[in-house]
## 1
Amino acid sequence: MPIKMIKINRAPVMTLWATVVAERQGHSPETALTLGRAVAGLNAQSKARRLGLVEERPQEGEQKKPARKPKTVTVLGRSVPVVTTKDGLRAAIGGEAIKPEAVKRYLASKFGEDLPLVRAAMEALAKAYSPDELADQAYGLYEQFRPAVPEGERGWGAAGSLDIARIRRLARRARN
C-alpha cells in the first residue's frame, strides 16, 4: 500500500512527536499528551516572538520571585513547567494544568483518520532509540521529518506535507 503524504501544519506534528517522545521517556500517556501540547505551544510562542508577530511584554516594576522554582520536565530540549494534580503530573501553562482530553481532541481533529498511522510511525522511530539517546536526538529527528513550510511569516500557520515514509526510513536507519 503506498504511503500518502499528509497536508498538515507543524504544530500538531510537533505535539504528537513530543507526546510520543515523552511516553518513550517513561511518562504516562495522559502526562505525555500535556507535555506534547506544551512543547508545541512554547515553540510557537518563541517563533512568533522571533518573527515579530507578538511583542515581548514589558516588565512592570519589579516582578515578585516565585516562592519556589517551578518543577519542570524536559522534552525535545524544551523545559516544560509541570504541576501535580489528583490525576498525576501535567504540563502547565500559566500555572494551569493542561487537560489530556483536550489534547486528544486537538490531535484527532488535525490528523483525522491518519492519526493512528502517523502515531505508529512516530512510535517506531522513538523505539529505535534508547530513552536517553532519544532525549538527545528528538528535536533533530523532528527537524528531519517535519512538514516543509515557507520561511518567515509566510510559513506561519501554513500547512506542509508530512511524509510518513520518511519517518519510517529514519526508524529503519536507526535500527541498522
## 2
Amino acid sequence: MFSSINHFKEVWTSESDATLQCLKMFTDESLQTSSFGDYRNIKRIANHIIACADGIPFEAGLPVDFKKQEYHTVQEMIDAYTSAVNQVQTAINQWNDQTLLEETPMYGETWKKGFALWVTVVHQIHHRGQLTVLMRMAGLKVPGIYGPNAEEWEAYNLPAAD
C-alpha cells in the first residue's frame, strides 16, 4: 500500500515508462497475433492494461476522465496509455497522504485508497509479464526492464544466462 503521494508518483512514473517501452515494441501486425486457447492475446492484454491504468484509480475516487474503449493500432494504444498515465499523474495532486488512508468501496470489498493505487501498479506489472511472454511468442523484441533482455545480454558478450 502506498502511504505517500510522492512515493506513488515515483513508482508510477517508473512502472508506466516500463509498460510504455513494451507498447512501443509492438507492430500493428503483432496486435493480430492469436494466443493459445481462450486466453488474452497481445491486443487484448494491452487494451486491458490501458483501461486499468486510470480505471482502477477512477473506481477509487481519483478525479480522472475515465472511458473504456478498445484500441486497434499501436499508435492509438501508445496515445491512450500515455493520456491515462498523465491523467493519473496530474489528478493525484488533488489527494494528499491522508487521502491514501481513506477507505473506498472497490470490487465488492473495502480498500484504502493507497492500496487501490498499489493494486493499480502491481496489476500493470502482472499483465506486463504476461504480455512479454506473448511478445516473444510473436517474434517481438522484449525490452530489458529490470535487467538486460536476451539480446542485450548477448551484446555484452557475457556467457549465456541460467
## 3
Amino acid sequence: MSIELIVLDVDGTLTNGKITYTKNGDEIKSFCVKDGLAIASWIKLGREVAIITGRNSPIVERRAKELGIKYFYQGIDNKKEVLEELLKELDLTMENVASIGDDLNDYRMLNASKRSFVPKNASMYVQQIADEVLESQGGEGAVREMIEKLIQSEGLEENYLALWH
C-alpha cells in the first residue's frame, strides 16, 4: 500500500519548538521554507497532507493555507483519534499514513501510522517507537527530509523532479 497522507505535528517538527511572545502578547513562530516547498510538492503529486497540533495558533493556520493544506486541526489532545476520523473521511487506512512528531503527545499517532518519523531532537520515548529518526532537527528541514525519503521509497522521484524542471 502506498503512502497517500502525511500527518504533521507543528511545534518541534514544523518549527524549532520555540514560542516567542512580543510585549503585546503576539506569538512568533518560524517555519523552514525548505519544508514548505516539499509539502507543496507532495500535494502537487496528488497526495494529501494534514496538520494535527495540540496548540491553537493563527500563525499555523496561515501557514497551512499558504501551503494548500486542506486538513488542519488544532487544539487537539488525542491526535490518533482525529487521524482515525480523517481516514474515514478520505477512505484510507493507517497503512496509507506517514506521520512526523517530536514529543509524547504524538506517541499514539506515530505508533499507529504505517511509517513514523521524528526529528533528531525528538523525545527519546518517541525516538524508540519511530521507524526513523531523521538527521534534521525540528524546524530545520526535518519535514523536507521525511518527504524526500517517502518520495524515494514510493518511487516518485521522476514525478517529483519533473515538477521543478
